């Protein structure tokens, strides 16, 4: 059995939410299924950040799909990282790509994609997509399941 304590800064700890994405730590733990191609999905339907111009809240639905290699992202640290954007001023594109790049940096996945589906402000929804490259051939990639904007409900 793997001892995960050396990899954890959040799991099993009393940790306050980080005040910014730069302050947040993403824990990566050993993948017990390394060598097996499998898609892991994280969905954050209530992602929030702040408009850097107006200071008004922005709301998005993030979907992250990744194929882990040697490391998995630990979900509690991911939740705290995502929560750190609540007081962070950045445009939709920057938030979405920042989340994807930080997860990729922490886990060094075989492949990762993120879809940021943002609710409208000023009457325009913005959807942002980023991926690390081409997924391996033969891997089943489900649709991200978020319909084009029509009230998002």
From TrEMBL:
Source organism of the structure? Sneathiella chinensis
Q: Does the keyword Transmembrane helix apply?
A: no
- Write down the Pfam families for this protein, in alphabetical order: QueF
Pathway per its UniProt entry is:
tRNA modification; tRNA-queuosine biosynthesis
State the compartments where it is located: Cytoplasm
Family affiliation: Belongs to the GTP cyclohydrolase I family. QueF type 1 subfamily.
Swiss-Prot/TrEMBL catalytic activity: 7-aminomethyl-7-carbaguanine + 2 NADP(+) = 7-cyano-7-carbaguanine + 2 NADPH + 3 H(+)
Q: Where is the active site?
A: 51, 58
Which UniProt key words apply to this protein?
Answer: Cytoplasm, NADP, Oxidoreductase, Queuosine biosynthesis
The name on file for this protein is: NADPH-dependent 7-cyano-7-deazaguanine reductase
> What is the stated purpose of this protein?
Catalyzes the NADPH-dependent reduction of 7-cyano-7-deazaguanine (preQ0) to 7-aminomethyl-7-deazaguanine (preQ1).
* EC number(s) per entry: 1.7.1.13
Task: Name the positions where substrate binds.
Answer: 73-75, 92-93
Which InterPro entries does the entry mention? Answer: GTP-CH-I_C/QueF, NADPH_dep_7-cyano-7-deazaG_red, QueF, QueF_type1
Its main subcellular localisation, reduced to a broad class, is: cytoplasm
Q: Has UniProt tagged this entry with the keyword Cytoplasm?
A: yes
